Amino acid sequence: MQITTKLKGWMQVVVVVVVASLVAACGGGGGSSNNSGGDGISSLPAGPTQQPIAAGAANTVAITVDKGLKNVINIPTVSVRICTPGSTANCQVIDHVQLDTGSYGLRIVSTALALALPVTQVNGSQQLAECTSFADGFTWGSVRTADVTIGQKQAPSLPVQIIGDLSAASVPTTCTGVPENTVDDLRVNGILGIGVMPNDCGTTCLTASSSNYYGCIGNNCTRTAVTTGVQVTNPVPKFTGDNNGVIVQLPPVSNTGAASAQGTLVFGINTQSNNTLMAAQTFLSDPAGDLPGSTFNGNPAVALFDTGSNGNFFDDSTLAACGSNEPGFYCPPAAQTRPFTVKGSGSASATVNMNVVSAATLIASGTNFAFNDLAGQGIRAGWVDLGLPFFFGRHVYLGMNQSASGGAAPFIAF
Which InterPro entries does UniProt cross-reference here (predicted)? Predict the structure, then answer.
């Protein structure tokens, strides 16, 4: 079993950080407990208890949290169907694709894909490629076009990234760090980014100097400006109907964890009888879906809602760090709770209780892979990443950013 975290890149798309062995226990010490007796798990405040609706409707797809391909905890995955554009026969279903509300667009590892998809060309005859920056490395691969179906919803002619399909010799010098272009590196067959942004780069990549994209002739690749029409694209806004947002629904799990959890991803908000907005609070977000008006430990904070992060991540010096066995995670001697006030650009606010149990305690059984109380140290000062633990027992709504076309502003609701 492994712990691995994946956080959204602050200027890029996704970040994968911290790979750790889950065999030995981590050290304790430091921090005062909000609970009494033993590890304190039994006295943690109760979490949310909403149950997911059954998957099966045309605007739904099943979410699975289990040991996956590489025995990694808190990794939600779905299956996607990829076809060559215009074909209903030349198709492939790719399973174990990570569901990520903190990024935008579909990325498939090349070794998991048996189809030959058409290459996107730019600047005349150059092959379009993208370097996606990570905290501990990068992914590199071409941009191609596919008809993508998730559940029964199709996004035709969608630009997608194929990770690891280009020669290592083609990696530009401006793409730095450790290459992470295989299933062994990512621990999934791909990443499905369904956050609130329609594209992974938007207007930033309209200028070559700030672009993630490269035009390649053979192994010679040069950074290039690209329009949003060829950027790796969020499939949800490309659906015909049920395309204004998503609802992530995961069941509640015990504070000691569960072997697996089965949830449902619902497409559309207020477009069908099964996706009515029934959240207690709705928060207007920034264009990326974050809530910059939040408060943690009395200080201003930005709230990030990210199923692609397998823990809640925030800075708190009173919580004991695990050390070398589970680097980056907290291992307090007794279970604790940290309140977090989330607030967007409107007046709505709510307090989220983030339960924290020692990562070493949680993974000691070796058989549980779904946890609602795994937490670790923040990646960027002033940010609180509400990762997968936040989503258990909740219906979390993400309203797509439609403002560029005169539509609705993005929002988060739960």
Answer: DUF3443
| 20/66: higher pLDDT | 66
3-state SS of 335-395? CEEEEEEEECCCCCEEEEEEEECCHHHHCCCCCCCECCCCEECCCCCCEEEECHHHHECCE
Write down the residue that tokens 């304190």 correspond to: 40
Domain 60-238 in the same topology as domain 26-49+276-413:
yes
CA–CA gap between residue 286 and residue 288 (Å, rounded) = 6
Residue range 60-238 in CATH 1.10.730.10: no
DSSP state letter for 321: B
pLDDT, tens only, 337-346 = 999 999 999 8
Contact (Cβ atoms closer than 8 angstroms) between residue 131 and residue 172: yes
Q: Which CATH architecture has domain 26-49+276-413?
A: Beta Barrel (2.40)
**pLDDT tens readout for residues 20-52:** 222 222 222 223 333 334 578 988 988 999 999
pTM to 2 decimal places: 0.91
- Residue 303: which residues within 8 A CB-CB, separation 6 or more? 290, 291, 292, 294, 340, 342, 384, 386
Domain ranges of the chain: 26-49+276-413, 60-238
What count of other Cβ atoms lies within 10 Å of the Cβ of residue 383? Answer: 21
